[in-house]
Design a protein that fits this description.
This protein is mostly helical. The protein contains seven helices and no strands. Helix 2 packs antiparallel against helix 3 (71-82) and helix 5 (118-146) crosses helix 6 (151-173).
Length: 205
């Protein structure tokens, strides 16, 4: 979604295409593409960092669960980790018993800490996020490479593709099996994307 919004923000400047030189037009298109690549790389770096951070936190939780002196620390870490999830809907007494059961399970000798390092996880996340970002950007920018001689037509087709991609993301992201709910989710996704792109343009983004 971010990649589509980024591209639509860049290409919106081409609505004044009559006053733009051909070289400047290609600069805008390529800048949008490279910005999406940069966004994908940055996103991947932070995902990798977050994954390693979570792994270290889980490792501390396991070590604390195995120590009699650190039971209270393990309990508080498990509670902090799970209270904001679906587990938070469980009654408090049942939730406490669940947390105790988790701590006892983590204390078992066969439960080992999964070690993750930043540089080992980095390529996976960077290639994944960059690929998604670049792929989405290319779909929306494709008309400019095909219909480069008619910038306004290319812009109209690009905007249609951008809104369509936003709709499909929202549609398939919905967990509901009903078509109307999926359709509604797709429409909301498309409308929000358009609003964000417009606000970004107005603010000078």
């Amino acid at each position: 979604m971010y990649a589509v919004i980024i591209v639509m923000t860049f290409t919106s400047t081409l609505r004044h295409s009559d006053t733009l030189a051909q070289s400047l037009y290609m600069t805008i298109v390529l800048s949008a593409l490279l910005c999406c690549v940069a966004w994908g790389v940055c996103d991947g770096v932070f995902y990798a960092w977050e994954d390693v951070y979570d792994a270290k936190t889980q490792g501390m939780m396991i070590h604390a669960s195995k120590s009699e002196e650190k039971k209270s620390l393990a309990d508080s870490m498990i509670k902090e980790e799970l209270d904001d999830t679906i587990v938070g809907y469980i009654e408090e007494q049942d939730r406490e018993r669940l947390y105790e059961g988790i701590r006892k399970y983590l204390a078992k000798p066969d439960v080992k800490v999964k070690k993750k390092t930043f540089f080992r996880e980095l390529p996976h996340y960077v290639f994944g996020t960059t690929g998604l970002s670049l792929g989405s950007a290319l779909i929306v920018l494709l008309p400019f490479f095909i219909f480069g001689n008619d910038i306004r037509f290319a812009l109209n087709v690009s905007n249609i593709l951008g809104v369509s991609v936003l709709f499909l993301i929202g549609y398939y992201r919905s967990q509901d099996e009903r078509f109307l709910r999926k359709f509604s989710s797709g429409m909301i996704s498309a409308i929000l994307g358009i609003i964000i792109a417009l606000v970004t343009v107005v603010l000078g983004g």
